[in-house]
From TrEMBL, chain A:
Keywords: Cell membrane, Membrane, Transmembrane, Transmembrane helix. Pfam families: ABC2_membrane_3. This is ABC-2 type transport system permease protein. It comes from Anaerobium acetethylicum. The chain crosses the membrane at residues 21-42, 190-213, 234-261, 273-293, 300-317, 359-381. It is a multi-pass membrane protein. It comes from the Bacteria. Its main location: membrane. Residues 17-378 form the ABC-2 type transporter transmembrane domain. InterPro entries: ABC-2_transporter_component, ABC2_TM. One of its GO terms (cellular component) is plasma membrane. The keyword Membrane applies. It is found in: Cell membrane. One of its GO terms (molecular function) is ABC-type transporter activity.
Automatic annotation (TrEMBL), chain B:
PROSITE patterns: ABC_TRANSPORTER_2. InterPro entries: AAA+_ATPase, ABC_transporter-like_ATP-bd, DrrA1/2-like_C, P-loop_NTPase. Signal peptide: none annotated. This is ABC-2 type transport system ATP-binding protein. GO terms for molecular function: ATP binding; ATP hydrolysis activity. SUPFAM superfamilies: P-loop containing nucleoside triphosphate hydrolases. It comes from Anaerobium acetethylicum. Residues 3-233 form the ABC transporter domain. PANTHER family: LINEARMYCIN RESISTANCE ATP-BINDING PROTEIN LNRL. Keywords: ATP-binding, Nucleotide-binding, Transport.
Amino acid sequence: MFKTIFFYRSKALLRSKETMFWSLLFPMLLGTLFYFTFTNILEGEGFETVPVGLVDTGQYENEEAFLGALESVSGMDDERTDEGSGDILFNVTKAENEEEAEKLLSEGKISGYILLGEDIGLVVNKSGYGATIIKSFLDYFKQKMSTVENLMEATAGKITPDQLEEALQTREYVKEIKVSEESPNIVVNYFYTLLAMSCMFASMAGVAEITGIQANQSPLAARLNIVPAPKLKVFLGSAAALAVIQTAIIALVFLFLALVLRVDFGKDYLLTMLTNIAGVITGISFGTAVGAVLRAGENLKTGICSALVMLGCYLAGMMDVQMKYRVQANMPVIAKINPVNRLTDAYYSLYYYDTNGRYWQNMAALGIMTLIFLTVTFLVIRRQQYESI
Amino acid sequence: MVIKVENLVKRYGELIALDHFNMELREGEILGLLGPNGSGKTTAINCILSLLKYDKGEIQVFDKKMSPVAYDIKQDIGIVMQNVAVFNELTVYENIDYFCSLYVPDKKKRQEMVEEAIAFAGLGEFRKFYPHKLSGGLLRRLNIACGIAHKPKLVILDEPTVAVDPQSRNNILEGIVKLNKQGATILYTSHYMEEVDQICTRIAIMDRGKVISSGTNEELKSMIGLGEKITVDVPGISREAVEGIRALPNISKVELSGNTLVVKSKKGRNNLGAVLHYLEDHNIAFGKLYSELPTLNDVFLEITGKELRDNV
Ligand SMILES: Nc1ncnc2c1ncn2[C@@H]1O[C@H](COP(=O)(O)OP(=O)(O)O)[C@@H](O)[C@H]1O
Ligand SMILES: [Mg+2]
């Protein structure tokens, strides 16, 4: 019985136009779109460090801290370092005044200049990779400063130098957005969220698995409630088919991204595939939990489910990578429990780090989420009779 | 006893859908559950199948208490639901095979059963069709084939002929009789009295959540105080002639409106011959004439004071 259910459910899924569109075609189209949007960044502006101007009026109260932070990621013009070496993000040119900086900017010698007045300002004349990097650095610094201020307040000024240093850490940030030889890390994140999204789209089919055995949801579900077998058995046969088919589809999306669009996934494709499988299973169990918990029609459940996935994608930086850092800094809990973010981070870990510690952390988090989702699902669908169908 | 339901009460919030519903289905019967829309037929079936919680009552199937986990009982039930329940992405053959596989694991045995079901429902030339390519009638036939392929001892059909063309309807009704001849006990619900009249060995008439009367076709009809009803066009019939007909034996009522004379017979009596003789003997010219035996609608009308069909 399990075999037949598995077999026919697989057939049905492969024939389902929705599955093929949302899981296969849509991610490929979006990936292609990303590809053309980012080729400029990937190939066009092939520089590694961003030339940036600095006008320091001496009015900024945290001047020292800022210059320190900037210095730690820059080669200042007087001690120019070799391009591309180490963690150098900016090539800073100090300007005497705004006019001079403006001139450098209009001549294209710098991507923008930082104006240290009473506050930190940024002047750029066109958007682009350089401007984005400077902007994100400034945002990052401001966030750190407010953290420090909060810390000061909380400890009534008795902050240890160690604490301060940790709060002002910029190394980590530099690592996050460091520009590597082949492609800027910032860009791969878009493709990773995309793949994570495709995995999590399995949740919509997961909703269907649940409504498919809830007698009050459809005539077909009612029909499956009077077969001589526990509905858990029917569910497992069907969900197993879904997991296998979705994994195969994700493998195709992955290969398309890696081989056709040449997105860098690091070296260990087997672990990337494992991540895909984990993603699909998390997606399906997320869908079944949503389907089981919500009391609504199937369409509404599916709608809510896909909206949640898209929200997860947004928070994981699919539309704007800065979002990811903002969430990480301001709402770390959300970043931790957002499965899309966890998946994205898992792909990223494989790509970026030499050791897999962070990768397995993400995988463990996904495993725990899946367990929770499945427990919720089973607790709800165990009730077998309905007041009304 | 194949099904025994005692004092079943089911409420949907305020609404009492089943109000001390009682029913017995004996082996070998085709029991027709006849009632207007909303009388509680589907609710009764869903309770019998343990799909719905109910407030009160006892339900036994094959002399065992029915429950959601009574898989041994479910094994022998074939169900054709009121709403078509098939997989849209599977073909006719695949759908029947899928449902059959839930009852019959053996692949070879199943293959024969599926073929038989396809032949039974007359779906031979449509086996590779997807459900959305089938007409309403064929879809219903597929729904039935999915329900009965595993050769269950008890077949429950909930309004299987709603919205089907006459050809499919006949196919379905004949099929049900055939299943019964092959040994299946059948519970059949409908709000079409003609169908129930035609195929059922026993009938239970339902209204407002309970069975108001049950018995064989003849038993039900003889319960009410009506016999044959004769309607005849008699232009220019005389008052004496009307009185003469009224004086014939076994006549309960004679009414003349315009040119149309309606003659109602007493319970269980037929008077067509006597009326015809009278008209001929008295040289009364007559036009269109027809005679009707009492129908289940008359039975329903007599018990509830309303028409079966008007309640749709
Ligand atoms: N899920 C439900 N919720 C509330 N009322 C219902 C529900 N299903 C049926 N009813 C009501 O219960 C009564 C019996 O319905 P039903 O069993 O479908 O009748 P039938 O099958 O004879 O047409 C009707 O009045 C109907 O409106
Ligand atoms: Mg009904």
